[in-house]
Every structure is written in structure tokens, then in C-alpha cells.
Amino acid sequence: MAHIGLHHTTIGSQGIDLPVVALSETLAIALMITVDHGVAFCAKAGTELAAMLDDLEVEVVVTVATMGIPLAIETTRALGLDDYAILHKTPKIHLADGESEPVVSITTAGEQRLLFDRERIRVVAGRRVAIIDDVISTGGSITAALRLVRRIGGLPVALGCLLTEGATWRTALGDDADLVRSLGEIPVFERSADGDLSEVWEG
After folding, report:
1. 79-118 pLDDT, tens per residue?
2. Which of 23, 119, 123, 140 minimizes the number of CB atoms within 10 Å of its CB?
């Protein structure tokens, strides 16, 4: 995917340049691909995010596959926990009878489903949960994750991420927006007819 510029941002104590990519003729985003930034980057980010969650008595981390997984592992490690759970977007044999929730994401075409293994419900049910993802943008993925975690009996106490993008996620999350703990923020971009990009921070 060709990019149309770079956007410099700060994620915790780390500076990073993100490629700006067009979603349409008028809308572009700064694209965060967690797995492209290496082990040390995610280890540092996970440690810093864990520090933001330290007062919440988190008992288990839940993440949305796949870009949230490296951050979730490092946050789990930094919190001194050993277990985490994954909400999948790709059907697999062990998820055939799993719990599911519809989800629409800004970076994925069409509707998908979050899937959770019934055998792992015991890891989440009745426990204080931090739901971790790479970027909270429209709020579609994280609100679907919230619904699913609550339905299986988890108690979400935080929504952690590397970055929030724009502000439409606040409307999607409603009162749950207060649960967000982010290491940084980025705008979305509007592109004019002459190709110029302008930052948009509000929904």
C-alpha cells in the first residue's frame, strides 16, 4: 500500500513515524502496524501501559487479534501476570462453538465477528479485565470487545492502547470512554481536491 506522507507521533516515551495512507479520496489515516516495530518497541510500550494500569488491580488482559497481541503480551508481563486471552477475528476449529460478537473496523472491509473459545471463559469470568488493542479509532473493535467480555462475565476496568485516533471513538464508547488509557494520540486526515492533508482531531 503506497503512502502519501509520514506523520510523526509519540507513543509513551518513544517517537515514531507512521505512514499516512488513503482510505478514500478524501480520508486518510496514519497507519500503525504494531508487528513492524520490533520486540524492544513493544516491550517498552507494554511496560509504560502497564504503569498506567497499575492502580486498577487488573487480573487478566484480553486483546483483539492480531495487532493487539504483542502489546498485550508485554503489558501482561509488566503487570506481573501470566495469562491473557485473545478475541479472534479468523474462524478456527476450536472456535466453532465459541462466543461471538459482530465487529466493524476502520481498517477492515465489511463486518467480521470477534470469536472467543468457550474453554477460555474461566480465565475471564468474574475477573478484572484490561482490554488491550493497538489503536482505538472509530471504537468499533473495542466496543465489540467490551460487549463480549461483559457477556462472558468479565469486569472491564480499562481499555488500553498505543494510540487513540481522532475522536469518534468517544461517541461510540459513551460512558466507557472514561476507561481508555492511551500512550498517545493521532488525528485522522482530510485530503482536499488539490491533495493537501489537514489534521482532524474531532469527530
Report:
1. 999 989 999 988 888 888 899 999 877 656 567 899 999 9
2. 119
